[in-house]
Every structure is written in C-alpha cells, then in structure tokens.
From TrEMBL:
Keywords: Coiled coil
Domain annotation Transposase TnpC homeodomain: ranges: 39-110
Organism: Bacteroides xylanisolvens
Protein name: IS66 family transposase
Coiled-coil portions: 9-83
InterPro entries: Transposase-related (IPR052344), Transposase_IS66_central (IPR004291), Transposase_TnpC_homeodom (IPR024463), Znf_dom_IS66 (IPR024474)
Residue ranges annotated for the Transposase IS66 central domain, each copy included: 175-330
Gene3D superfamilies: 1.20.5.170
Keyword field contains Transcription regulation: no
Superkingdom: Bacteria
Domain Transposase IS66 zinc-finger binding, chain residue ranges per copy: 119-161
Amino acid sequence: MNDISSDDIFLLKQRLAEQEALIHALQEKLSNREREIDHLQAQLDKLRRMNFGSRSEKVSRRIAQMEADLNRLQKESDTLTGRVYDPAVQRPLRQTRTRKPFPESLPRDEKRLLPAAPCCPNCGGSLSYLGEDTAEQLELMRSAFRVIRTVREKHACTQCDAIVQAPAPSRPIERGIAGPGLLARVLTSKYAEHTPLYRQSEIYGRQGVELSRSLLSGWVDACCRQLSPLEEALHGYVLTDGKLHADDTPVPVLLPGNKKTKTGRLWTYVRDDRNAGSTLAPAVWFAYSPDRKGIHPQTHLAGFSGVLQADAYGGFTELYRDGRIPDAAC
C-alpha cells in the first residue's frame, strides 16, 4: 500500500475546508430564503384580508406580484433542500408544506403490529423478519402531548420471498398528524370553552409543540365534514312530526377585513316532550343565518308538519297559513 505524502494530506484538508465553507454559505442562503418566504407569506395574508374588505385594483396587482415572488422563492428553496411536494389532496386535509419532526422531549408509546398469521398467506411457509415501516402520530392525553409511534413490521417468506405486513391503521384525518384525542380537544376548546384557535396555538406552543392557527383551522373544517352525517341525523330526529319549540337569538359575527361585527341569527329548534310523559330523548338543532328574514325558518321547517310553539315573530306566521303546522302559543 502506497504511503500518503504530507502534500496529499494538506490538499485533502484544504478541500475539506472549502467544502465546509460552501456548506455554511448554502445553509446561510437557505435560511435567508426561508425568512424571506415567511415575510412574504405574512404580507400576502395581510393584503388578502385587506382585499376581502375593500377591493382595489392596486392591491390585487400587489397580491399577484407577491404570489409570483413567493412561488419563485419556494421553488429555489426546494431545489436547495431537495424537497418535493406531497401528492395533491383536498386543501382542508393537506398538512403544512414542510413537516417538522416531533420534539424528542415528548414521551413516545410504541405500538408494534405483526402480520395477522405467523406463516406466509401464499404458500404457508415460515416468515422471517425483513424490515418495518414507522409512522408517528401526535396525540393529547390528560392535557399532555404524546407521540404515538406505530411500527408495522415486514416479514418475508423463507420459501417464496413473499412480503407480509399488517395494514396501516386508519386516522381521523387522512394523512393527518392529529390523533382523535387531540382533535376532540381542539373542537371542545373552540366550541365549548370558547377558546379561539390563535389562543390554542399559543397554549400548545408553550407546551413545546408548534401548531399554527391555519393548521388548527384545517383540522376543524375536516372534523366538521366528518361529523356531517351526525348533524343530518340530528336534524331529521328533531324535525320529526310532533311538537317543536322554535326561537332565534342574535349573535355578533366578525366581518373579515374591517374588524367590525354585524348581527347574525342563530335559530334554535328543540324537541323535548318529557313534561308530557314522553320517553324520547330530548334534542336541539341549530341553524345559522346572516339576518332575521322570515325565509330562514320557513326553509328550515319546509318538511315539518307537527305542532310548532314559537313567539309572535312574523317569520313564523307564514308557516300557519295553510294549516299544515298548528300554532301552540308560548
């Protein structure tokens, strides 16, 4: 074996130093690009909110230019890092563009899934360990984050080389990182505890997990889609022929863009005949409208033909004209 001369060693060290300097420069360039992308994204979001309230041709041109600059910077950043886009999925179900790993400080529970049978399903031969697929899911347990790591072992047949693996478990949101407990917590905090999503994002950030407001909003929208069959069943149950209590209440609604509120209406329909000896479960169905026009309750009760108990609001009066719905005075 030939001896390496001191000149070769010096040359190698020099090239190594050059490569390290190049890597440092590229990392600095990448960091600057990411900061510029975040800055442009924040400005673009602000302009979109302004454009929603009062449309302006000048604002529209600025939005188009910033979107073009943002796309260019994102492509350059992807080229430097080697990132590729995820397959196209519905926007509410799509996760963030670059998914950060979960903090190592979070405790982890590992669930190891084995093939259903200890032998090959094709030929009946014995299986040997081949490898495994690992996926992590963020879960909330007792107000503490925990990463649920699911490991699906791969086994190979020793006779025919067939590969056997347990199927991946389903998730509440396809390809989502949130477990059912975390989604339930977000919905409960928003609708039962009246905690806005931006405050929830701050709360989770103090626990060491960064969940942006837009990500939480996407989860809420996806959960509402998943719960739509339950809402339809509740609607059908409450409006079944019988006795129905109806009323409306004003609710302040934030107008996007100008930080002002307008008055919307929340229509409440209650089915509860327990005082009359009924053993059927009570239930309530809510419907929202941006105003108090009579067309809203008339549309809600278009298929109802039972007894309606409501106040003297004129929007309910039209329902009594044809005699299909008897009036029970308050």
